[in-house]
Amino acid sequence: MAGPRDAATRKADSLAMLATPAIDVWVATASEADGPHLVPLSLAWVDGRVVIAVPEASVTARNVARSGEARLAVGPTRDVVMIEAALDRAVAVAEDDTLGAAYAGQADWDPRNDSGYVFLVLRPLRVQAWREADELAGRTLMRDGVWLV
Amino acid sequence: MAGPRDAATRKADSLAMLATPAIDVWVATASEADGPHLVPLSLAWVDGRVVIAVPEASVTARNVARSGEARLAVGPTRDVVMIEAALDRAVAVAEDDTLGAAYAGQADWDPRNDSGYVFLVLRPLRVQAWREADELAGRTLMRDGVWLV
Lengths: 149, 149
Fold this sequence. Notes:
Two copies of one chain form a homodimer. By secondary structure, chain A is of the alpha+beta class. Helices cover 21% and strands 44% of the residues of chain A. Chain A contains three helices and nine strands, in the order αββββαββαβββ. In chain A, strands 1, 2, 3, 4, 5, 6, 7, 8 and 9 form a nine-stranded antiparallel β-sheet that branches.
């Protein structure tokens, strides 16, 4: 057993995980009327933002448009990166070539081939990373949008 | 490529996954004040209910007590069982020996050794299972608490 990772290692591991090709993210959103929503989606990590692509009419898109917030989990349950994020912007997938290329370059599908999809660009406010119970202490790596390490 | 699984296979696979020793579940809850919450927790599958153990004062316990609902995901992002669930009951971990033994028998920890924990017994209302995009059709296996297959 290696024991708990230090903060610098957790940050490096988290950034590596976020940059992994074809990695997915659990996206939790909520609305007052319908409560919690949760879906797995493909992720791109672009300029320090989590980018997902969803149908404009999806529950996730509507919830994020209304509340401006999402809670994200990347990795398996015992090696997680948890992110509280705020919506920076939503943009139709055909309208930002740079973003579209970055997304398609990391994800294993290209939403620009489908109609009605939007990119949601989500800015991390809090980032936490832990594996097992011995890593619950020291799990917060970013607070109020600022890396602590 | 085997192609999409039929409904009976998805149900059997889902039940097997839920009964797996030491398996975890992503638990999404929400409150009007604080929006979405998401945590990974150990799961037990007891008499057709999803049982989790959380501190009584945790965000998850408070959200579920208030709203009576949670959205659950079991399995990796490309082999998921998604469950919309309603709270059947919350019980202090020391107060139900049968439930405690069942939980400790499947999970790889025993919350009865910690103070302040409650079991949340969650009744599935909707169950969906899919692996990749070719399984999105036919993903609903339970609706309004009734298995469709």
